[in-house]
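Kindly go through one protein, given below as sequence and tokens. The question is how this chain folds according to its tokens.

***
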Amino acid sequence: IGSDIFVLTADTISKVSSSGAFESPQVLNYVEPVIKSCGNYGLVFDRMTGKFIVFNGKKTLYTGQSEKEQQIITADIADNGNFAIASRGTDSASLLTYYNKNGKVIFSWACSKEHIVSVDIASNKKDIICAALNAENGEILTKLYLLNIYENETEWEYSLNGSAAIECFFASGDRVIAVCTDKRVILNTKKDERDPKVCEYSSTALN
């Protein structure tokens, strides 16, 4: 974050400056912590308890809890400190909540049938791409959703039958990329593509 390195362990997060100076670690007491960063902002969340913190290179900006204390599946943070939390839902399979850096909810979207596994915030801070998993006729199904925080309906959707996404993100222009366990798929959200660009893997991708 900036010129500093943040080191995450099971219990703490520590800052190491570019000169090698080590600051006292902040105790988190998380069960399964994950760290995300972008620009001068960072986010650490606990998959099990739903707790999270937002910070910059100098201090913690916000300490929070997922909606209704549900488990967090994944998250993302933008370079202005806005962040998205995908958690398990109570009235839906999963819930995406988008906040500003001070923890104010800007946007919320319930994914009724699928479990969100990846989230990416666009550089314009208003578009979000989600990859979510479900099963159909005994086969794994990935759904890609393009969301606009100022709209109630999804902007664009796409289904990948027989493939499990592990990551999705924005590329240049109107393109998005879905990385699956068996392939990588490039799609244009402004076109009705029946034949997207696909690169298949010779073995299963882990990360």
Remarks:
- The chain is about 0% helix and 55% strand.
- The mean pLDDT is 93.
- The longest strand covers residues 127-136.
- The radius of gyration is 18 Å.
